[in-house]
What we know:
Blueprint: H1 10-13, E1 23-27, H2 31-43, E2 47-52, H3 55-65, E3 69-73, H4 81-91, E4 96-100, H5 105-113, E5 118-121, H6 126-149, H7 153-173, H8 178-192, H9 196-210
Parallel strand pairs: 1-2, 1-3, 3-4, 4-5
Helix pairs in contact: 3-4, 6-7, 7-8, 7-9, 8-9
Amino acid sequence: MPSDRALAHPALLEGQAMKRKLRIAIADDQPEMRQFLRGALTRMGHEVITVAETGLQLVDGCRAERPDLVITDIKMPDMDGLEAAREIYREGLLPIIVVSAYHDPEFIERAAESHVAAYLVKPIKASSLAPAIALVMKRFGEFLELEKEASGLREALEDRKIIERAKGILMKEARLDEEEAFRRLQKLASAKSQKLVVVARTIIETAEVLRPPEPPERGER
């Protein structure tokens, strides 16, 4: 059974996220950026339901509207975007994209800790938004599939790392794209009546067994 937090996203569970318009919350302290995001997302066919200038406004808007996706700047008054993301995620699972004018390793590390799904550096082009949103929603859908099987969020996060690693092995060895690799894992799990993570571990273990031995270090015999 999926958790109550996952049930907040029925469209994602049904695989319909990118076949319908998304309800999106945006936040940025710059009017020009808010206008750009709103216009670009609207032209893509999505609905912008919350437009915030501060982190607190974003948290309040998400609490009231429960959007499908959040796109937020990092540096904002009263509460920065990463703090807001952490608060939003605490109340329910949501895919979150952060944007920033800085490619700062500290921000990137904090973004990972705040459950951010993607990190975009300004200036952002409208043409880069659509693929970023598609990738984030697809990965978030995969995460919800994992949560169906996991007993809790922490286990789901650990399982996701294992499955991502197994997908990478399939993509490299079988020359598959990411979507086909995940589908292959699902088919194997279904055929064997096993969880995705169990099949993923088997693939990883097999790859490790078949890996050629490393050459001895210089000086060893």
